[in-house]
Specification:
The chain is of the alpha/beta class and 350 residues long. It has 13 helices and 5 strands. It has 2 domains: 132 residues, no CATH class; 176 residues, Ribonuclease H-like superfamily/Ribonuclease H (Nucleotidyltransferase, domain 5, 2-Layer Sandwich), CATH 3.30.420. A 5-stranded mixed sheet has the order 3-2-1-4-5, with helices on both faces. β2 and β3 form a beta hairpin.
Length: 350
């Protein structure tokens, strides 16, 4: 492909462009928005030009203006240019709308407000356009909104179950944190593959990096991670797979690290955690207490933050040619780094 990218579009930016495509009655505006989307998806430059009637330089210029100034730069300003100021009464209505309604209530697909959707709705309703996003930010601020990147949640996630788990576990965990001879470990597993993962980076204007990626079959390795909630120490182990036999072997290695201490082990409900081989080992050890995280609630596990930190520091924006070497590097990073992540509502004592 002839497309080089500076960064990928966010989900909010894609939603703004899709909204413009759906609501605009002017072909040039629609084509500009489509060009930005197609370029982000690394479509062939010639195909983008045929579909949008834009030259290569126009396509890159449209994208640059969108990333710099927002979706309003794609809107045709020639005929019937809207007014740029709103009355005090109109602003009050807009703020009240943001506070009491969702974009879906106003005819949009999204259930959450973005600057692009708000700007488009204001223009449709009041034939007014703000010159910059600053005025839109002020509307959200006056409506007492804050900016958040939406998180992902499992469909089966039960917030009531999570609340109940916190209520029941908090006293127990507080007590365990105070016991000098008890180690509290938050555990999880991750999978590293040869698939290239991309993360946003800041670069001088005009630079467009490319990250080499593999087109062959993916290789994978697993990593078991145990975060000591009192000290922030991480104990990570590379494995070929995840099953009850491997899990039992990893627990044996953890016991070598903590030969005499009582271990309070927090982990999820994965099948290999509940397998007979693992349960038999825990029973024979006699000094391991298991606390299961609530179902479909990875956000409760501090070990998830450890994975994120490692991927960001070691494997993102990188072509992984040797899966074992990359996994070894990742495990080394984990085991040499302190991670001061706490359980929800609790902090380590040291």
């Amino acid at each position: 492909m002839g497309v080089m990218e500076s960064r990928r579009l966010t989900s909010d930016e894609i939603q703004e462009l899709r909204t413009l495509v759906r609501t605009s009655k002017k072909s040039p505006e629609t084509k500009r928005a489509q060009a930005v989307i197609l370029l982000d998806r690394m479509a062939d430059m010639q195909d983008i030009g045929i579909l949008t009637d834009l030259s290569r330089s126009q396509i890159f210029n449209v994208r640059k203006r969108f990333l710099t100034e927002g979706v309003t730069t794609l809107i045709d300003k020639r005929e019937g240019r809207p007014k740029e100021l709103l009355t005090k009464k109109e602003r009050a209505v807009i703020i009240e709308t943001v506070k009491t309604k969702t974009p879906k209530d106003c005819g949009y697909v999204s259930e959450h407000w973005t600057t692009g959707i708000l700007g488009n709705w204001i223009e449709q309703e009041y034939k007014a356009r703000y010159k910059s996003k600053t005025s839109l930010y002020l509307v959200f601020k006056q409506a007492r909104f804050t900016y958040h990147k939406p998180g992902m949640v499992y469909r089966e996630h039960d917030e009531q179950e999570v609340t109940q788990w916190r209520k029941e576990s908090k006293p127990k965990l507080k007590r365990l944190l105070k016991e000098n001879d008890t180690v509290i470990l938050a555990e999880d597993e991750m999978i590293l593959t040869t698939r290239t993962t991309i993360q946003k980076v800041w670069l001088p204007q005009g630079e467009y990096p490319k990250i080499e990626c593999s087109t062959g079959g993916r290789k994978r390795r697993s990593v078991y991670g145990f975060l000591n909630m009192k000290t922030g120490d991480e104990h990570a182990f590379k494995t070929e797979k995840q099953n009850m036999y491997v899990t039992k072997e990893i627990l044996e290695q953890v016991r070598i690290i903590y030969p005499k201490q009582k271990i309070a082990l927090l982990w999820d409900n994965a099948g290999w955690h509940k397998g007979s081989i693992v349960q038999e080992y825990i029973k024979i050890d006699g000094n391991i207490t298991i606390i299961h995280f609530p179902r479909y609630a990875p956000e409760e596990n501090p070990q998830e933050h450890v994975w994120k930190s490692g991927r960001s520091a070691v494997t993102h924006n990188r072509f992984i040619q040797d899966i074992d070497a990359a996994t070894d590097e990742l495990v080394l990073y984990f085991n040499k780094t302190k991670f001061k992540y706490s359980l929800p509502g609790l902090s380590p004592i040291s």
